[in-house]
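Second opinion, please. Pick holes in both lines of this record:
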Amino acid sequence: MAGQGSITDVQGVKVGHFTDTRRPTGCTVVTFEKGAAAGVDVRGSAPGTRETDLLNPLNMVQQVHAIVLSGGSTFGLDAATGVVRYLEEHGIGLQFGGSIIPIVPAAILFDLGVGDSKIRPNAEAGYKACQAAAGGKVAEGNVGAGAGATIGKLFGMKSAMKSGIGTASVHVGNTGIVVGAIAAVNAVGDVVNPQTGKIVAGARKSDGSGFRDSMAQIRQGYRVKVESSNTTLGIVATNVALDKTQMTKVAQMAHDGLARTIYPVHTLADGDTIFAAATGAISTRADHGAIGALAADVMAQAVLRAVMSARGLPGLPSYSDLVR
């Protein structure tokens, strides 16, 4: 399987999933109990977000305490309310005017087309994801924000495949620097392994003989109507100390990881959003341009792991179904 490690290899980072198996859908929380400087970059044209304005380098708040990725479209933003409640109860947040105010940006993907659309993550789901947050190995595939994720929808859900959530990390030589990523992949396009150039998951031919190759169809002038909304969500994190402006640039560069693996990406029907966070757990200085380059690399690995870890559902085969 592509990549190795996880975003929790970054000191100060924990991950928790809540998965509602009735639909399926879910949410994923990445926590920074000691806070983290963070930035965000939105490239898709159909985003659903919360508190992202706080991450603008011009604005006052300097650190976040958690970031939420959720299914459920707009309704799934409610999961962040439960995360805020959990962090306040545990004394984690910005000390302001005698109160503790947890700073919790969030973004959602559209998975309402899989199962009962009335079932979606809520505040209780976010709270439970926080309860489950831990370091160490992170579950991948059909869990959390990846539970209802699908891929290859340029020709509609009838040709789509099951996707999920994945994570990866890189340890930089002997420096002690770590860069990690986590991605919930719910894109219109196909996912391609950048090392081989081959499609690993995407729109399928009607006879089951292989992939339609969405970009090849577009190059031939084929016009399609996208029948569902989408979005790939990601978080990159590092253990070095960087500020909001620098992490905004890292978030921008991390989108290159999506561009290397998802074809097409950042479309009108995607809400592609990547957050970037620096915990400052080590004192080693680093160039944020180099961190951004590494962030793009591990984001590409996380995307591959998301689709390669997924398990199929009725009518939605996964990578593992096709390679057996």
User: Anything to note?
Assistant: The chain has a mean pLDDT of 95. The chain has six helices and 16 strands.
